[in-house]
Amino acid sequence: MISIFGFPKRKKIKEEEFQINYEKYYPIVYKQLYYLVGNNELAEDITQEVFIKYYNSKEKIEFLGSWLSKVATNIALNYLRGEKRRIKREESILEEVNNIFSIEDEIFRNEQIKGVRKILSNLPENQRICLLLKFSGYSYEEIHKATNIPKNSIGQLIARGKQKFLKLYEKEGDLNVL
């Protein structure tokens, strides 16, 4: 039989010819692929794919070892390029999701801050100032120096401010601040 290109058509290879070549070239192709992809299972999968292409090949293969090597390399490189694109795509999606969550977190935090400020604005001024300074890391001595409130009153003002804050907090709803 002759193809439309003038080359003789090749029927599928015979089973015994395939088996002989499979046993001869499988270790060579596998080893090459393992060095390319660095993974046992992937190298085995691609090796199988190479031999399936060989089995289904209708062209006359003059230098089988070279042909198998070239096909193996092409399949492996195609896989690696596809894997690289998949990883980039996943990273891009993950980045978008993280951006969405960070925007939502920021909105949520801003709402919390507004709620806390609203509650703090309802506290008496001396309690509010003492609470804010204490939660900003100031000691009783530093609060006394900054406000001229007697040192022995600062602890009581902070305690009363916390109690009032918690009552107002419960009244206002869950702000997830405590």
UniProtKB/TrEMBL annotation:
Record flagged with keyword Iron: no
An individual GO BP term: DNA-templated transcription initiation
Domain of life: Bacteria
Domain called RNA polymerase sigma-70 region: residue spans: 22-86
Location of the RNA polymerase sigma factor 70 region 4 type domain: 116-164
InterPro entries in UniProt: RNA_pol_sigma-70-like, RNA_pol_sigma-70_dom, RNA_pol_sigma70_r2, RNA_pol_sigma70_r4_t2, RNA_pol_sigma_r2, RNA_pol_sigma_r3/r4-like, WH-like_DNA-bd_sf
Keywords for the protein's UniProt record, in alphabetical order: Sigma factor, Transcription, Transcription regulation
An example Gene Ontology molecular-function term: DNA binding
CDD domains attached to this UniProt entry: Sigma70_r4
Family: Belongs to the sigma-70 factor family. ECF subfamily.
Name of the featured protein: RNA polymerase sigma factor, sigma-70 family
